[in-house]
Specification:
By secondary structure, the protein is α+β, with helices and mostly antiparallel strands. It has one domain: Electron Transport, Fmn-binding Protein, Chain A (Pnp Oxidase, Chain A). It is 42% helix and 29% strand. It contains five helices and seven strands; from the N terminus they run ααββββαββααβ. The longest helix is centred in the first third of the chain and has 21 residues. The relative contact order is 0.15.
Length: 163
């Protein structure tokens, strides 16, 4: 029951965010992510790691200009020994800040399943990108809608390889 309610709230929340001006939407999304991270930390890293088939990792990345550590909760899919995340930003016209940070500093850490793993990020291309996109869209069908909302850019698929 709880997972269904949370999943429904997530879907409803995205619908509400879609109606906001882009600047307000970005601030609202930042507040949601901050709350998610706080729930994860306050629960001793037990809550906020998944909702039904949706799995969440916490990406520890570093600001491209500032070098400051940032943490972003993100949906992920497994691809063999690799993990993959989608830089959708809900179909926004620009890529998320974490994507730019990964391009500048690809060696990062992810937190999931109660452990921290060092990974190296790279952008998937061609058949690999399409295969992972289909896998991610099967878990979160809104990715296809996000791509339609951002027709001028191909939403990046980022592969996180163990290092």
């Amino acid at each position: 029951m709880m997972r269904t309610a949370v999943s429904t709230a997530m879907k409803g929340g995205q619908v509400l965010l879609d109606a906001l001006p882009p600047r307000v939407e970005a601030r609202a999304w930042e507040a949601i992510q901050s709350s998610h991270l706080a729930l994860f930390r306050l629960s001793g890293r037990r809550l906020g790691t998944g909702f039904g088939p949706i799995r969440i990792l916490f990406l520890h990345h570093f600001g491209a200009k500032s070098g400051a550590e940032r943490i972003a909760p993100l949906l992920y899919v497994e691809d063999g020994e690799n993990l993959a995340i989608i830089a959708s930003k809900g179909g926004h016209e620009r890529n998320p800040a974490w994507f730019h940070n990964l391009k500048a500093n690809p060696d990062v850490r992810v937190e999931l399943h109660g452990e921290v793993r060092p990974v190296s990020a790279r952008v998937a291309e061609g058949e690999e990108r399409e295969r992972i996109w289909r896998k991610a869209a099967a878990v979160w069908p809104d990715y296809d809608r996000y791509q339609r909302r951002a027709p001028h850019r191909e939403i990046p698929v980022v592969v996180l390889e163990p290092r």
